[in-house]
C-alpha cells in the first residue's frame, strides 16, 4: 500500500511539473493604484494554490476545534 501511495504522489508531481512547464508564459498581474507585476503563470497558480491550502487548513482546524469543544464539556459534567 505504501508503494502505491508513493507511485500516486510521483504521478501527481509529474503532472503538476508538466502543467508548470506548459504554463511558463509571462502574465501581468494588475493590482490597485496602477501597480503591476510581470510574472510566470505557473508561479501565479502556485501562489493561489498555497493561499487556498492555507485557508482550507485554517477552516478545517477551526471546525475540528469547534467539534471537539462540546465533547470535552459533556465529559466533564457530572451525571
Automatic annotation (TrEMBL):
Which keywords does this Swiss-Prot/TrEMBL entry list? Answer: Cell membrane, Membrane, Transmembrane, Transmembrane helix
Q: Where are the transmembrane segments?
A: 42-64
Q: Which GO terms describe its cellular component?
A: plasma membrane
Q: Which domain of life does the UniProt lineage start with?
A: Bacteria
The protein's matches in Pfam families, at most eight in alphabetical order, are given as: LapA_dom
Domain (Lipopolysaccharide assembly protein A) ranges = 23-62
Annotated protein name in UniProt:
Lipopolysaccharide assembly protein A domain-containing protein
- Write down the species: Methyloversatilis universalis (strain ATCC BAA-1314 / DSM 25237 / JCM 13912 / CCUG 52030 / FAM5)
Amino acid at each position: 500500500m505504501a508503494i502505491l501511495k508513493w507511485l500516486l504522489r510521483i504521478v501527481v508531481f509529474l503532472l503538476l511539473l508538466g502543467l508548470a512547464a506548459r504554463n511558463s508564459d509571462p502574465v501581468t498581474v494588475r493590482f490597485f493604484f496602477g501597480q503591476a507585476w510581470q510574472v510566470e503563470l505557473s508561479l501565479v497558480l502556485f501562489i493561489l494554490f498555497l493561499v487556498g491550502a492555507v485557508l482550507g487548513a485554517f477552516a478545517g482546524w477551526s471546525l475540528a476545534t469547534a467539534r471537539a469543544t462540546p465533547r470535552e464539556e459533556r465529559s466533564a459534567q457530572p451525571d
